[in-house]
């Protein structure tokens, strides 16, 4: 049991980032019913933005500088590729995100080169030891940033004026428009927020393990998380993020000896199992219509 | 003046490009005008004689394009036909390829066919849970399948040979060893032509019309009596079958199968073919495959001219090109190359006097 704890702490540290990333992803899906297949690339772009700023600024400032730029990036994506497809089949928009993902994939590699890069600075070391178990600085930072931010966003979505407007739009966009809600602006904001959250996750990953192309694979785990929590459940995304992190930790500890490399495939096994047993996820709204 | 213009354009469209199909017989025909029929026959003849006209390397590329077009047609039936997205098309091709790698030599045609069958059954298994709800779930399930298949290709050594993959002896048909692209071409045609004609006809049948009804408006399709899950499942299984057959043929062409042939980026490449070709038609599949498969060849030359330090990042350039192509066609020309061609044709249909 004691040797399991380090794995679990690592799992929770990853889970916090999964949750953050999935939160933005699910928010976009709720508001616009677009599945953003470029979410992994949002994270990638965010991580490289942080890296670029970190060459010039102290690391905490670099992260703070990358966030507004990421927001702007999200808004531009919405303006450039989502809005022009308004009124078309949602399939078209989803395929546009696939195209965007491919273009960003290549673009990032061309701009920053293919090799792994390490950030020059680091965040203050918050690691500590409790009861013989070492809690890494990475885990503390991830949880410290992700939990309040995630919970705060959930609260804002429930209580704030902006949050209520977002929910109104996701409920019925045309009616929201008719009521004079500035739908276009708010949806752009939702995309911006999603990119911002992805960038924060990317920055934290970059701090811990450097920036490289393989960050995309971390980003792809947003799909298992979102399906597990429920594709339209914003709060579920946060919970499912931690759940997947823990599941991966368990697999790392107990299954890896028998099935090497299985932990990489596990999230996608989870997808298929959830779709089979409970397709609307743990917290998703059960859909009655069958169309 | 007007009457003259009308007579001219009527005569033109009867002969060269029929605007409206008036009878079921016309709708079912493969080509709607005498000239179109002639073009079709000429094209078929060209396909049969192609190995006599081209050298070994162009023939290799032609075979690659034909296989790509076959696979793209499968995805067309799903995306353009039924309006669902698959991000696992390459994985289904892989399933077909690995199946074919176990039945080789004289059994090769059987292996290719069986590869399609196994891919289709896997498609049914995958589609059944995810199509009960909404199309987006299928997209995510296929993404998951792509990664799981990748994992299986790499680790299930007994069947797939692990990372090193498997090699195939050339197929044999009636004692003839098909060891060059020129000879393999006919095996490809043997599978591709019937599947192309089937794909073309399918869209005119009850099932094909059901696909399109689901694509255009699933609610009204349901009201009209279309069983949505059934229609989507059928489209998905069919597209997997086409992918499996194409994968099996690809294995014969490459004479080897490794996991590197079927990653996510290839799935996206096929999606690009569908979008660039456009609109769920057979012609679109061919044009899309031709266009997209020739891009790497063109990029090779272009990037090579820029300098060796750029050539190292060819994969990245390719990704950018495919991504931008998808975006550009989606935003600017949703009907794809077929739509472009249609507009050019419509322009000439009324050409001298457009009003």
Automatic annotation (TrEMBL), chain A:
Transmembrane segments: 6-27, 34-51, 57-77, 89-112, 139-157, 190-216, 222-245, 257-277
InterPro entries linked: ABC_transp_permease, BCAA_transport_permease
Pfam families: BPD_transp_2 (PF02653)
UniProt GO molecular function: transmembrane transporter activity
The UniProt record lists the keyword Cell membrane: yes
Membrane topology: Multi-pass membrane protein
UniProt keyword list: Amino-acid transport, Cell membrane, Membrane, Transmembrane, Transmembrane helix, Transport
Localization terms from the record: Cell membrane
Presence of keyword DNA-binding: no
GO terms for biological process, alphabetical: amino acid transport
Predominant cellular place of this UniProt entry's protein: membrane
GO cellular component terms listed in the entry, alphabetical order: plasma membrane
Family the UniProt entry places it in: Belongs to the binding-protein-dependent transport system permease family. LivHM subfamily.
Descriptive protein name: Amino acid/amide ABC transporter membrane protein 1, HAAT family
UniProt organism field: Thermus arciformis
TrEMBL record, chain B:
Taxonomic lineage of the native organism: Bacteria, Thermotogati, Deinococcota, Deinococci, Thermales
PANTHER family, per database record: ABC TRANSPORTER PERMEASE PROTEIN, HIGH-AFFINITY BRANCHED-CHAIN AMINO ACID TRANSPORT SYSTEM PERMEASE
Transmembrane segments: 38-57, 64-87, 107-128, 135-153, 184-203, 233-254, 274-299, 320-342
Organism listed in the record: Thermus arciformis
Protein name: Amino acid/amide ABC transporter membrane protein 2, HAAT family
One Pfam family named in its UniProt record: BPD_transp_2
Keyword Transit peptide among record annotations: no
InterPro entries, sorted: ABC_transp_permease (IPR001851), LivM-like (IPR043428)
One Gene Ontology CC term in the entry: plasma membrane
């Amino acid at each position: 049991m004691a040797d399991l704890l380090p794995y679990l702490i690592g799992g929770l540290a990853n889970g916090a980032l999964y949750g953050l990333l999935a939160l933005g992803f699910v928010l976009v899906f709720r508001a616009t019913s677009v599945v953003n297949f470029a979410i992994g690339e949002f994270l990638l772009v965010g991580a490289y933005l942080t890296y670029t700023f970190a060459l010039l600024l102290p690391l905490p400032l670099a992260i703070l500088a990358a966030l507004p730029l990421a927001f702007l990036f999200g808004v531009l994506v919405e303006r450039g590729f989502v809005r022009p497809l308004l009124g078309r089949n949602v399939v078209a928009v989803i395929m546009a995100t696939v195209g965007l993902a491919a273009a960003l994939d290549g673009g990032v590699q061309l701009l920053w080169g293919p090799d792994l890069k390490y950030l020059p600075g680091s965040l203050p070391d918050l690691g500590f030891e409790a009861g013989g178990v070492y809690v890494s600085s990475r885990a503390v930072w991830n949880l410290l940033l992700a939990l309040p931010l995630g919970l705060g966003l959930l609260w804002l979505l429930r209580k704030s004026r902006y949050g209520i407007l977002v929910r109104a739009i996701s409920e019925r966009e045309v009616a929201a428009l008719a009521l004079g809600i500035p739908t276009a602006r708010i949806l752009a904001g939702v995309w911006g927020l999603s990119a911002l959250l992805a960038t924060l996750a990317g920055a934290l990953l970059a701090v811990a393990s450097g920036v490289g192309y393989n960050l995309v694979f971390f980003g792809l785990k947003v799909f298992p998380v979102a399906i597990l929590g429920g594709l339209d459940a914003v709060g579920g995304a946060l919970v499912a993020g931690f759940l997947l992190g823990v599941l991966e930790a368990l697999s790392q500890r107990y299954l890896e000896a028998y099935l090497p490399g299985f932990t990489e495939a596990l999230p996608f096994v989870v997808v298929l199992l959830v779709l089979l047993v409970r397709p609307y996820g743990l917290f998703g709204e059960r859909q009655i219509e069958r169309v | 003046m007007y009457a003259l213009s009308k007579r001219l354009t009527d005569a033109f469209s009867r002969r060269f490009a029929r605007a409206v199909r008036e009878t079921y017989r016309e709708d079912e025909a493969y080509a709607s005008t005498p000239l179109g029929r002639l073009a079709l026959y000429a094209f078929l003849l060209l396909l049969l004689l192609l190995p006599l006209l081209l050298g070994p390397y162009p023939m290799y590329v032609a075979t690659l394009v034909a296989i790509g077009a076959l696979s793209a047609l499968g995805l067309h039936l799903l995306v353009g036909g039924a309006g669902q997205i698959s991000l696992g098309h390459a994985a289904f091709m892989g399933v077909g390829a690995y199946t074919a790698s176990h039945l080789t030599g004289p059994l090769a045609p059987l292996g290719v066919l069986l590869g399609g069958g196994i891919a289709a059954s896997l498609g049914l298994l995958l589609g059944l849970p995810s199509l009960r709800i909404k199309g987006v779930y299928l997209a995510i399930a296929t993404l998951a399948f792509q990664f799981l298949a990748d994992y299986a290709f790499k680790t299930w050594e007994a069947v797939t040979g692990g990372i090193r993959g498997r090699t195939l002896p050339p197929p044999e048909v009636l004692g003839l060893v098909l060891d060059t692209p020129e000879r393999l071409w006919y095996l490809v045609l043997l599978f591709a032509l019937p599947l192309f004609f089937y794909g073309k006809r399918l869209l005119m049948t009850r099932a094909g019309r059901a696909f399109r009804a689901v694509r255009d408006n699933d609610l009204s399709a349901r009201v009209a009596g279309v069983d949505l899950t059934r229609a989507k499942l059928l489209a998905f299984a069919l597209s997997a079958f086409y992918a499996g057959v194409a994968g099996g043929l690809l294995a014969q062409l490459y004479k080897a199968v490794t996991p590197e042939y079927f990653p996510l980026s290839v799935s996206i490449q096929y999606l690009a073919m569908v979008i660039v070709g456009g609109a769920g038609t057979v012609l679109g599949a061919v044009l899309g495959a031709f266009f997209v498969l020739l891009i790497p060849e063109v990029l090779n030359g272009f990037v090579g001219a820029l300098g060796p330090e750029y050539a190292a990042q060819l994969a990245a350039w390719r990704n950018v090109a495919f991504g931008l192509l998808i975006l550009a066609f989606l935003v600017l020309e949703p009907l794809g190359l077929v739509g472009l061609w249609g507009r050019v044709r419509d322009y000439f249909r009324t050409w001298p006097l457009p009003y």
